[in-house]
Specification:
The complex is a heterodimer of chains A (about 230) and B (about 230). Chain A is mostly helical and about 230 residues long. Chain A has 11 helices and no strands. Helix content of chain A is about 80%, strand content about 0%. Chain B has a domain of about 110 residues: P-loop containing nucleotide triphosphate hydrolases (Rossmann fold), CATH 3.40.50. Chain B contains 9 helices and 11 strands. In chain B, strands 7-8-9-3-10-11 form a 6-stranded mixed beta sheet, sandwiched between helices. In chain B, strands 2-1-4-5-6 form a 5-stranded antiparallel beta sheet, covered by helices on one side. In chain B, β8, α6 and β9 form a beta-alpha-beta unit. In chain B, α5 packs parallel to α6. Chain B is globular, with a radius of gyration of 17 Å. Chain B starts with a strand and ends with a helix. The chains are: A mainly alpha (about 230), B alpha/beta (about 230). At the A-B interface, α6 and α7 of A face α2 and β7 of B.
């Protein structure tokens, strides 16, 4: 199956946007997951609910909220453009932000479950051996939650690849800039005789998702083998 | 000298312990399961904060709730060996040993590895070790952090009898030859008899009696308990 320029462009943009979304949101997702798994504070339930909001909110509503906050005339977007010269509306960076926001709760959830499954006594032993909180996190918590982090990356990446509603609302459907595979499929389905090309893109999506899942499973097995000695 | 005078409310009773313990040899804290022994140990090593009172180790205040003084677990220099070893599963034995190692202990790693007879295990992961081997590595890891006090929370309870006897020899060696003061927590009178010079009996969170082991073993309370 040789791809044409239209398909290459959609595939390249999808991978670039999903990759950027995951790379930039992952540190924050790990930190959020750790806070939810290990910290007790007033308002934790509210914080937890806000983190999970993108999971239940209509993607179009999310895109609209991004538009009014992060758009060129939005509350934060205006400030970013004026003081830092950063514009994220109607370009691939905005699409990455929309994808990151939509995928964030999935990534956080996977990592949080992994952190919660770590025996907290291992972290306590490390502390009694003189390790400070940061060292405990980087040498015990993070490596032991690796399977959950990998699963979060795969789930988040797959969610980013499939992102449609928030992206089209926030950054529109611009060829070569924000037209990812789902948006390209949608565009093809709006024109006569576009079904066959849409099906090709659909197959590409399935192959991508399968490759991601297989890679995740392999990494997970490697990690388990390592722990088993 | 370890001076303990703390209170901590637990579910069902209040742990109240006031006693000074010499920092030499092995002192045991003996009590049935749920009597507050492990909580007391975790208050000493800094993992749990008491509700009130203070602890001093060799004149240095580790915690004083009334004066708002608190030294965290990582700064106390008190190592703990727990019941189920709790080796880091993603590190091999050598990395486990080195985890809390102080630079001044660098030249002693070979000595400790040989004393505990774990040289052949250095490249193995914890999942490949037996219960007794895991505990020896856990003891080695604790020793290499150069602690001023070693706490042991029922380290033999998960082992079979031959492994227990073997490990008791190692623990005696640490206290006598290496001069590491040990606070040994157990519910097993035979272990305490074999190891400790002094014993504190703790019952429902209260210190019942503190004395030399021989006198404690003659206590009627203990006879009834056996």
């Amino acid at each position: 199956m040789i791809l044409n320029d239209y398909e290459w462009q959609a595939l390249y943009l999808s991978l670039k946007i999903a990759g950027a979304a995951i790379v930039f949101s992952l540190p924050l997702a790990i930190l959020t997951a750790w806070v939810l798994a290990r910290c007790r504070f007033v308002g934790k339930s509210l914080f937890d609910s806000i983190i999970h909001l993108p999971l239940v909110l209509p993607p179009v509503a999310l895109g609209y909220l991004l538009l009014v906050t992060m758009g060129k005339h939005g509350v934060i977007g205006q400030w970013l453009y004026h003081y830092l010269g950063i514009n994220i509306s109607f370009n691939w960076k905005g699409a990455a932000l929309a994808s990151a926001v939509v995928a964030f709760p999935l990534v956080v959830r996977s990592i949080r479950l992994a952190i919660e499954s770590i025996d907290i006594r291992l972290e306590n032993v490390a502390r009694t051996l003189g390790a400070n909180q940061l060292r405990v996190f980087f040498t015990i918590t993070l490596p032991l939650s690796l399977p959950g982090i990998l699963m979060g990356i795969v789930l988040g990446f797959a969610r980013c690849l499939g992102e449609f509603g928030a992206t089209i609302t926030f950054v529109s459907n611009i060829p070569g800039e924000t037209r990812t595979i789902p948006l390209a499929m949608y565009t093809l389905l709006q024109v006569p005789n576009g079904e066959q090309s849409a099906m090709r893109l659909c197959i590409i999506s399935i192959i991508l998702a399968l490759l991601a899942l297989i890679a995740s499973e392999q990494l997970n097995r490697w990690h388990k083998r390592k722990l088993a000695g | 000298m370890l001076d303990i005078n703390i209170e901590k409310k637990l579910s069902g009773f209040t742990l109240s312990f006031k006693q000074s313990v010499e920092c030499q040899g092995i002192t045991a804290i003996l009590g049935v399961s749920g009597s507050g022994k492990s909580t007391l140990l975790n208050i000493i090593n800094g993992l749990i904060k008491p509700d009130s009172g203070s602890i001093q180790l060799n004149g240095k205040t580790l915690v004083n709730i009334e004066q708002k003084q608190y030294i965290t677990a990582q700064q106390r220099n008190i190592a703990t060996v727990f019941q189920d070893a709790l080796l880091f599963p993603h590190f091999n034995v050598l990395k486990n040993l080195r985890y809390g190692m102080k630079s001044i202990m660098e030249h002693r790693i070979d000595e400790i590895v040989d004393v505990l007879n774990i040289r052949r295990l250095l490249n193995r992961y914890p999942a490949m070790l037996s219960g007794g081997e895991k505990q020896r590595v856990a003891i080695g890891r604790a020793l290499l952090s150069n602690p001023q006090l070693l706490l042991m929370d029922e380290p033999l309870s998960a082992l079979d009898m031959p492994r227990k006897k073997e490990l008791i020899r190692y623990i005696q060696f640490l206290a006598i030859e290496m001069k590491i003061p040990i606070l040994y927590i157990s519910h097993n009178i035979n272990e305490v008899k074999a190891l400790a010079q002094h014993v504190a009996i703790i019952d429902q969170g209260q210190l019942y009696r503190f004395d030399v082991t021989q006198k404690i073993l003659e206590d009627d309370f203990l006879k009834g308990w056996i």
